[in-house]
């Protein structure tokens, strides 16, 4: 066989194998095995005992993970230690991705994508029979880990955008669907005289209070139980961070309209999302993010700038500018159409 087809076969088999590596990383994260391993080398038999896992299964999975550089094993397969890469799966790692791997979602519903391919409905609906948000509401433990995963990703993607923007020195910033408040706390840290309003679902806000207090901004921030589709309280700047890509076009227009009705004519809207190119094939990461949305939520998707412009206009906003953040994140700024 010629070299090229062999390379192609090897590439496909690599993807196939990586699928099992991914699921194994999810499994060890959910059982807190990286946390238990810490910085030390562990006897695998004892580690199995401590983590309530089957010793043979654990050893074999650690061998798989050693092959991808997450674990270091001795030649007799008696002991294991996390590599620096493996340590990123510990909860206390400063750049932890523990929750991103432990969360319920893509790892569990990905197999239902064949259903999505047939009818466009999210894999979550095929696999769970209910929408993903409804599933999370019914399973508070999973909602908590999902919220933590959002916080991990916010640290990587949205926080680097904060210093790129001017925030009102003593105004009010409202983060709508702001999760546990990672982004809002960072904005309030940047502008010490500003006030914050965090809007999200009630159980998310319970955890947000703790986070805002930890960050020392709780005295400047009110938390409001709210619905994305209902006008939020008045604010100078509204933030919608990684919220719109969870929704179909009509819902996005309705969310933007609700925010428009909450603010006055001087309000500024900042949308934190990746923006797809409208004249080129999206990057591999953009393709991944788009199919992740397809899998999780009803008709959810990543969008191009013309698509955002059109939806903003439907919701009563005029697109003003786009600020490029780190790879995979932009801030789309808009002002009320009435003032143009
Ligand atoms: C993908 S997360 C983004 C969280 C955060 N803005 C960030 O950038 O990390 C979407 C957020 O929208 C919230 N959300 C979903 N449906 C909502 C609704 N109907 N009303 C209010 N918040 C909602 C979720 O609880 C979640 O915190």
Supply the CATH class of the largest domain. Answer: Alpha Beta
Got a strand count?
12
Widest sheet, order of strands: 6-5-4-7-8-12-11
Helix content: 40-55%
N- to C-terminal separation? 64 Å
Shape: globular
Radius of gyration: 22 Å
Which residues form runs of ≥5 with pLDDT under 50?
Answer: none
Counting helices, strands and paired strands, the structural category is alpha/beta
Average of pLDDT: 96
Structural key phrases:
2 domains, 7-stranded mixed sheet, Rossmann fold, Arc Repressor Mutant, subunit A, 3-stranded antiparallel sheet, 48% helix, alpha/beta, single chain, 340 residues, binds S-adenosylmethionine, 16 helices
What can you see in these coordinates?
It is a single chain. By secondary structure, the protein is α/β, with parallel strands linked by helices. It has two domains: 3-95, Orthogonal Bundle (Arc Repressor Mutant, subunit A); 156-339, 3-Layer(aba) Sandwich (Rossmann fold), CATH 3.40.50.150. The chain has 16 helices and twelve strands. It has a seven-stranded mixed sheet, sandwiched between helices. Strands 1-3-2 form a three-stranded antiparallel sheet. Helix 14 crosses helix 16. The longest helix has 28 residues, at 3-30. The chain starts with a helix and ends with a strand. The mean pLDDT is 96. Bound molecules: S-adenosylmethionine. S-adenosylmethionine (SAM) binds next to helix 11.
Quick structural gist:
This protein is α/β, with parallel strands linked by helices and 340 residues long.
What is the element layout, followed by pairings?
Elements: H1 3-30, H2 33-37, E1 42-43, H3 44-51, H4 55-67, E2 71-73, E3 79-82, H5 84-87, H6 98-102, H7 106-109, H8 113-119, H9 123-128, H10 132-138, H11 140-157, E4 172-176, H12 182-190, E5 195-200, H13 202-214, E6 221-225, E7 237-241, H14 249-262, E8 268-273, E9 275-276, H15 284-296, E10 303-304, H16 305-314, E11 317-324, E12 330-336
Parallel strand pairs: 4-5, 4-7, 5-6, 7-8, 9-10
Antiparallel strand pairs: 1-3, 2-3, 8-12, 11-12
Helix pairs in contact: 14-16
């Amino acid at each position: 066989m010629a070299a090229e087809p062999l390379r192609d076969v090897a590439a496909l088999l690599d993807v196939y194998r990586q699928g099992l590596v991914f699921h194994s990383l999810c499994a060890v994260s959910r059982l807190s095995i990286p946390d238990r391993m810490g910085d030390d080398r562990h006897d695998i038999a004892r580690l199995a005992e401590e983590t309530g896992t089957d010793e043979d299964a654990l050893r074999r999975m650690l061998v798989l993970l050693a092959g991808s550089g997450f674990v270091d094993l001795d030649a007799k397969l008696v002991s294991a230690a996390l590599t620096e890469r493996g340590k990123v799966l510990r909860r206390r790692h400063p750049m932890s991705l523990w929750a991103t791997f432990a969360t319920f979602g893509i790892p569990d519903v990905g197999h239902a994508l064949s259903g999505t391919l047939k009818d466009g409905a999210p894999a979550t609906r095929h696999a769970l029979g209910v929408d993903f948000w409804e599933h999370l509401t019914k399973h508070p433990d999973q909602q908590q880990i999902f919220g933590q995963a959002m916080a991990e990703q916010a640290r990587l993607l949205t926080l680097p955008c904060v210093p790129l923007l001017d925030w009102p020195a003593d105004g009010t910033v409202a983060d709508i669907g702001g999760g546990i408040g990672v982004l809002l706390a960072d904005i309030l840290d940047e502008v010490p005289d500003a006030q914050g309003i965090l809007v999200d679902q009630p159980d998310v806000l319970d955890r947000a209070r703790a986070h805002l207090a930890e960050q020392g901004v709780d005295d400047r921030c009110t938390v409001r139980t709210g619905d994305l589709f209902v006008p939020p309280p008045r604010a100078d700047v509204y933030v919608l961070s990684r919220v719109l890509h969870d929704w179909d076009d009509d819902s996005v227009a309705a969310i933007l309209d609700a925010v428009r009705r909450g603010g006055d004519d001087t309000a500024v809207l900042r949308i934190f999302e990746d923006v797809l190119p409208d004249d080129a094939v999206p990057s591999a990461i953009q393709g991944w993010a788009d199919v992740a949305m397809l899998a999780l939520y009803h008709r959810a998707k990543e969008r191009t700038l013309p698509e955002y412009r059109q939806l903003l206009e439907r919701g009563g906003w005029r697109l003003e500018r786009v600020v490029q953040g780190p790879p995979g994140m932009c801030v789309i700024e808009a002002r009320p159409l009435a003032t143009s």
